[in-house]
Amino acid sequence: MLAFDSRAARVAWTVALTGLLLGAVYAIRHTLLMFVFAILLAYLLAPVVMIVDRFSSSRFPRALSLGIVYVVLLGAAAAVFSVAGSRVAAEASQLASFIPAYIREPQRLEQLPLPWWLRTYQQELMNFVIEQIQARQDRIVPMLTSAGKGLVSAVGSAVILVIVPILSFFFLKDAPEIRDEIVAQFPPARQPMVRDLLADVHLLMGRFVRAIVLLALATFTIFSIALGLFDVRFAALLSALAAVGEFIPVAGPAATGAAILLVAMLSGSGNVLALLVFLIVYRLFLDYVLQPYLMGHGVELPPLAIVFAILAGEELGGILGMFLSIPVLAILRIVYVHYRKHQSVAV
Q: How many CB atoms neighbour CB 121 within 10 A?
């Protein structure tokens, strides 16, 4: 007769519960993403809410000052995105009608005014571009055609315009109560550690969200000016693409930079060499000056860990996984540091 092994039973039970938990998380992943976006929006609006609340706390209830901030900021953002989105959508449609001309008449590529340093390799470069366009023409044109519609429909999405701001409102309104409730779930001896941990995570997420949005806005503004000065066609569309690329670490800026250079070459507009120099200089300025200044020392991760997180995030969640990979890894690092600190104090 086989003896009952309590240790093996506990391990099996733990594995089963973990599997059920992961399955439940996967099943409600879309709902969880709405909460994630709501938290990110709350961190973005938190500084303005704190300033308004500081001056109006003695006159109005906090919920009222919070509502004023929402109406003003979200209304202004909707107006700006409506104007910019219309122009981006128009240029996306123009680009969608521009590329098929090269698909139907590849010999037009040979007439492009390439810079002197590329003329030696003109034939090889043209052959490569033609092969890539023809191999992907079934996907390129529909993607560009739907890009503008996608931007407009995204702005008009009920999930973005209604559910996420409402959730974010409650996160901002009830943040202290939520924090205290989380801390209360732990034994009294561990509550100070949990409180410090949540404070560090709060500081990290605030810096990350505000920095990434400011970087995207700076990129859109500077690229709009620079591409206009370089006389590059589809400047608004390419600037918006570069701004969106800032939300995807490493891969986003590289892909958008290559796309900008390719469009500039295909359209025969702008000085490609000067544009390449601008992209390199701006990237260095962003990575070594502006980004460290905005983020401070919150995201302290080695480059190898960042690359691993990006690749793992792409495997697990695509583009959204790449965007969330860095803050998730940084939070895990904070948890590990606090755990080690608590263990050393306990010893």
A: 11
Cβ neighbours of residue 200 under 8 Å, at least 6 residues apart? 334, 338
3-state secondary structure 154-201: HHCCHHHHHHHHHHHHHHHHCHHHHHHHHHHCCCCCCHHHHHHHHHHH
How buried is residue 10: exposed, middle or buried, by Cβ count under 10 Å (0-12/13-18/19+)? Answer: exposed
Q: Where are the domains of the chain?
A: 29-298
Specify whether the CB–CB gap between 295 and 207 falls below 8 A: yes
Residue carrying structure tokens 């010893």: 347
Q: How many Cβ atoms are within 10 Å of 171's Cβ, its own excluded?
A: 19
pTM of the model as a whole: 0.75
Summary count for the chain: helices (H), strands (E)? 15, 0
SS3 assignment, position 268: coil
CA angle, 140 then 283 then 293, to 5°: 130
pLDDT in tens, 3-17: 556 677 777 788 888
pLDDT in tens, 219-240: 999 999 999 888 888 888 899 9
Render pLDDT for 85-107 as a digit per residue (tens, 0 to 9): 778 878 877 777 766 665 555 55
* Contact indicator for 324, 313 with CB cutoff of 8 Å: yes
Dist CA 168 CA 154 (whole Å): 18
Distance CA 253, CA 232 (A): 18
Longest dimension (CA), the chain: 85
- CB–CB of 286/250 below 8 Å? no
Q: Classify residue 129 as exposed, middle or buried by CB count within 10 Å of its CB (0-12, 13-18, 19+).
A: middle
| Residue whose C-alpha is closest to residue 33's, from 226, 167, 205 | 167
Q: pLDDT value at position 282?
A: 93
- Tell me the pLDDT band of 1, cut-offs 50, 70 and 90: very low
One-letter amino acid identity for 328?
V
